[in-house]
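As the work plan foresaw, the team has encoded backbone shapes as discrete tokens. One protein thus recorded appears below exactly as we store it.

:::
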Amino acid sequence: MEFPDILDGAAVLEFSDRGNYGTVEGDGRVVRYLAICRYAGGTRYYLFFCAGRGGGYDVITDDLCESLESCKASAARFGDVVWHKK
């Protein structure tokens, strides 16, 4: 299964390697992927925290960022994230 091109209606620009990026309070799923996305016509970027394949890449939560670089800076709290462009 390939990483999706669209998540929650937003275009995926980059996505991370599969990893363990923790959990979100109130949700028992482990965050397995990070994705940087943008909605059509939007000026901001979103760092999506996604469940793994078993979770169908569901977006658990997101951070709203001003730029692609600020999304990556936010994700750096998880260590050296390896990014793949779509």
